[in-house]
């Protein structure tokens, strides 16, 4: 008799421990509060509001995700390409329920998403699926993305604007990294947390002076 296949999850990823979530939320919300008061930000406010002069409260603008995490593989219950292969990897199986310390090195804000860039270690990269960086990337952006180091897309979604899906955060991050690589940085502002850079069309990138670390557990998630 054929055995029933084990079910595949919605996705695999590193989940922040509850006590870490509060700390990261506080630090990142403080940044949002400061960002929307900066003159440099106000100059580009229409990229968020569609109108000049109108104010925006970024804390209200972004809706918080339920559980903070860094996705490794989006499986969509087996419908995503390579889902089964990923779930069956030895390294994936033996890493489940293990602890990992993630390092957040930058924050991004765009009219669509608010996210934290994660710098993966060599060990963590072993859980990063091959080709994950370029999945769903627009053809025009592909050459730039292929030139970035593996794991460049790794991030934690901290918020999305109304009607935007979380998958957008990784795409926004890649676009920003590609623009940076091409030397397309605009205005720079020194903040307490680090250096804030403007990258056109409402895209902001904060390079943290000190990385923010967060304790996580690697696990699968199903709704
Ligand atoms: P992210 O990892 O950027 O936060 P959803 O709730 O939309 O079903 O998504 C569940 C999680 O899987 C989210 O964390 C989301 O984005 C991620 N995700 C959704 N779709 C994709 C995709 N096509 N590729 C990679 N990650 C995805």
Structure description:
There is one protein chain. With 223 residues, the chain is α+β, with helices and mostly antiparallel strands. It has helices at 18-35, 39-43, 46-49, 58-61, 83-88, 90-95, 122-125, 142-146, 167-181; strands at residues 11-16, 69-74, 99-109, 113-119, 155-160, 188-190, 194-198, 204-221. Strands 1, 2, 3, 4, 5, 6, 7 and 8 form an eight-stranded antiparallel beta sheet that branches. Strand 3 and strand 4 form a beta hairpin. The radius of gyration is 18 Å and the shape is globular. It starts with 10 loop residues before the first strand and ends with a strand. 34% of the residues are buried. The model has no long low-confidence stretch (mean pLDDT 94). The protein binds adenosine-2'-5'-diphosphate. Adenosine-2'-5'-diphosphate is lined by residues 10-11, 71, 74, 135-136, 157, 165-167, 169-170.
Report the helical percentage.
25-40%
> How many β-strand stretches?
8
Radius of gyration: 18 Å
* Chemical compounds bound to the protein: adenosine-2'-5'-diphosphate
Overall geometry comes to globular
Alpha-beta classification: alpha+beta
Model regions low in confidence, pLDDT < 50 over at least 5 residues:
none
From the N-terminal CA to the C-terminal CA, the straight-line distance is 30 Å
Count of helical regions: 9
Mean pLDDT reading: 94
Beta-strand share of residues: 25-35%
Largest sheet: 8 strands, antiparallel
Order of helices and strands: EHHHHEHHEEHHEHEEE
């Amino acid at each position: 008799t054929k055995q029933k296949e084990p079910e595949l999850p919605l996705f695999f990823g590193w989940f922040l421990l509850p006590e870490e979530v509060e700390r990261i939320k506080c630090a990142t919300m403080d940044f949002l509060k400061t960002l929307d008061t900066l003159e440099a930000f106000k100059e580009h406010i229409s990229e968020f509001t569609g109108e000049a002069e109108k104010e925006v409260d970024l804390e209200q603008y972004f809706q918080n995700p339920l559980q903070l995490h860094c996705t490794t593989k989006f499986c969509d219950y087996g419908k995503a390409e390579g889902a089964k292969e990923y779930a069956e990897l030895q390294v994936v199986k033996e890493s489940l329920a293990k602890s990992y310390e993630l390092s957040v090195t930058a924050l991004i804000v765009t009219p669509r998403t608010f996210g934290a860039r994660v710098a993966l270690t060599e060990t963590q990269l072993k859980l990063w699926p091959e080709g994950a960086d370029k999945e769903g990337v627009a053809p025009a952006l592909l050459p730039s993305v292929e030139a970035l180091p593996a794991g460049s897309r790794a991030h934690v979604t901290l918020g999305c604007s109304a009607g935007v899906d979380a998958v957008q955060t990784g795409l926004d991050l890649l676009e920003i990294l590609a623009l940076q690589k091409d030397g397309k940085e605009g205005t720079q502002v020194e903040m307490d947390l680090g250096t804030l850079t403007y990258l056109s069309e409402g895209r902001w990138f904060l390079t943290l002076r000190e990385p923010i670390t967060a304790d996580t557990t690697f696990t699968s998630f199903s709704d």
